[in-house]
Amino acid sequence: MRCGWGVLLWALAAGAVALDTTDHTAEATQPADATVDVHAQESLALALEVLEQYEQAEGRAPGRQRRYESQLKTYRDISWMIPGIARPYAQRAARLFMRAAGLTDHVGEQYAGGRAEQPAAVRRAIGTLRELAAGGHEAAQFAVADMETYGKYGSAIELGSALQRFQRLADGSGNATAQYMVGFFYAAGLGGVDAHNGHALLYTTLAAIQGHTAAEATLAFRHLAGVGVPVSCERALGYYQAVARKAVAHYRAGPVMGRHMPDYRVRLADDHGGAYGVRTGPYSLHKLVDQRSFDELLQYHQQNALKGELKACMTLVDLYYHGHRYAPRNFAVALKYLRQVRAQLFAGPGEVRAGLAPAEAALAAQAAAMLGVMSLRGEGMAADPAAAQAWLNAGAKLGSGMAFNALGVMHQQGISMPANRERAIEMFKLAAERRHHGGQVNFALAIADVLPDVAHENLKRAAEGGHILAHFHLAELYAPTQCGMAVASYKYVAEFGDWLHSPIPRAAAAYRRGALDAAALGYMQAAEMGYGVGQLNAALLLETAGARLSGNSSAEYRLFGTRAAHERQTLAYWTRAANQNMPDARAKQGDHYYYGRGVARDAERAAAAYTVAAEADANALAMWNLGYMYENGDGVRRDFYLAKRWYDKSIEANEAGRLAGHLALARLCAKYMWAWLIGDDVGESPLFFAPRPVTREEEEAAAARNDAQAPDDWEHAAAADTGEDSQDDETAEEVDESLSGNIFFIMLFLAAAWMFLPFR
Question: Among residues 1, 25, 45, 73, which one has the fewest Cβ atoms lying within 10 Å of its Cβ?
Fold first, then answer.
C-alpha cells in the first residue's frame, strides 16, 4: 500500500510542473451543486447572508479590537535565578498572581475567540447549514467545515470534524479547495492526525493540478525550501510562475495603470516590543507607531489642513489615497484635501496660478498629477479622461514623473487622444528620468526590443522600489537561464500581489477580534505558502499559546492535541522564518534547541544558532546566551575569554541590558578567580585586570590623527615615541578605570554569591 501511494504521489508531482496557466481568478471557494432544489439553495443563501452580517458586525465592535493585546507575550524561564529550596514556592506564587490578574483562567476564551452568546438568528442560520450539510448539500458541507476550522460566527473550533468534512469533499467530488485544506491539515498535523508530508503533498498536488492558487504557492515553497521533497529550483519555478502570472493578470484587469497593492503585512511582534518583548538588536523591530501615536499625528495634520497649510493637505492626500494600517484607503477623503490644495494653487482645471514659490510649485505638480490620475481611474469621482488630460498636462509642465507616466499610458492606449507610440515612449522616458517606478517599467517594456540593456537597467531600478511588474518581467527574463533569480522575483510577485489567495487578511482580522487560534491557523497557512511574515507570526502565536497552556494542567493543546506536536510545529516555523531572515527567529530557534522544546536538547546546535543570530543579526540576547554558554562550557568548550567577549558585545549592542550584562560579568569574574585558585586552565593572560580594549572608533580616530600629522614633524614624533606627551597618563587612567570597575563588580557579586552562584 505504501509503495502504491509513493508511485501515485511522485507521478502527480512530476506531472504538475507543466501546469495549465489558464486564468483561474474566478476559481470557486465553495463547490457548486446543481442537483439540489431551489428551496435548499435559497435557504443556504439566506443563512450565509445572516452569518456574514453577524461576522462583520462582530469585527467592527469596538470592544473586540485588540481585546487580548496584553496577552500576546512570550516569557523566559528565570526560575534558575531562585535558590532551589524556594523555587516551588515562587512558582506557585507566580501562578496565583497570574490567575488573579486574569492571565491564565481564560485560555480557552482567549484562543477560541471568546465571543458572547450567539443571537437566536445566528443559531438558526447555523442550524440550517448543518441540516443542509447532513442532507448531502456540498456547498453547505463546505461552509460548515470552514466554520469549524476557524471558529466563525461565534462557534467553537472543531478541527477533527472539519477535517472529516473536507476529506469527504476532496475524495468524493474532487473539490480543489477541500483538497488543499486536507493537504494543509496533514502538513501541520491538525485535526487529530500526525503530520504526514506524503499525504500533504498528494492532496496539495491534486488541488494544484486543478489550478488552485494557494495550493500552487504552497507547492512552490515546498520545492524551493525542500519541505518534504528534494530541493528543486525548476519545480519551484513552475509553480511560482503560474501564481505570478495569475497575479499580474489580475493586476492588469483593474483600472488604468493597474490595481492598488494589497494591504501591508504586519509583524505581530512589532506590536509587543519584539518576539522577546524587548528590542534585541537593530533589526528586531520596525519603527513602531501605535494607534494612539498615529491618531495624535493625524489630528495634528488635520488641524494644520484646516488652517490651509498645503503640506499638511498633501500629507493627508497621500495617506488616504494609499491607505495605512490605522487609516484605510478612502478616495473621497483624499479628494477632499486635494480640492483644498487646488483652490489655493490653481486658477482653474489645469491652470496654475502665476508667481508660485518653488515649494508651492512642487506641491502643485504633485496635486495636479494626483488629480489627473484619480480622474483617469475614476477614484472618488466619475472617470473623466478629458479632465485627466488637462490636469496631467499641468503636472507635466511642473515636472511630475507621475504625470509623465500617466500621459504616456494615455498616448499608448489612445485614451481621449489618438494612439501615438512614439509620444508615449517620450513620456515614459521623462517619467523614468524622474525615477518614477511605473515610468521605468513602461519605458523598459517599450524599448526592450531595441535597447535591451537600457530596458534591463530600468527594470532593475523599478524592482528595487518594489514595483510588481518590474519583478515579474525580470523573472520572465531570467526564467530560461537563471532559475534562482527568476524564482526570487516570481516569489515576490506571488507574495506581494496575492489578491486571489492570501490567508493573511482573514488571520489579521481574527487577531484583531481576539480569536488567536483562528489567527494562528491563518498565519500557518501563509507560513506553508512561504510567507516570511506568516512564519514569524504563526511561530509567535503558537509559542504564546504553548506558554499559556503549559502553566495550566487542565488545558488542552487545541490545535495539535499534544504538547510535543505543538512545540515541534512551533520550532518548524521559527526555523523557516529564520531561513528568511526574520528578526529574532534564529535566536528563538536556538532557545528550542537549548531547552529541548519540540526536539531533543542539543546545546551544540543551540550555540550554532545563537552564533548566527549574534553575528548576522547583531542580536544582543543571542550574544548574552553565547557568553553564558562559554562561561559554563555548555555546548561549547569552556572559554572565559570568549564568554567575556560576548558579554561585552551584548552590553554594547543593547544599552537596556547593561544591568544583566554587568551582573553576568561579575559572576564570570568570580568563576574565573575560583577556577584560577583551584588550578583549572584559565588561559595565560589576565582576563579582567587588563587595559580596556580599544574600540574601532578609537582606532579610526587615532589613525586620522596620525594621517593628519606632518611627515617632517620629527620632533613631535620623537616626543611621542619617548612618552613625553600625555598618552601614558591616559593609558594609566584607562587601566585604573578598568581595574576599579572590575573590583566593583567583584564586590557586588561576592555580596550576592551565597544566593546566585552555583559553582560547576
Answer: 1
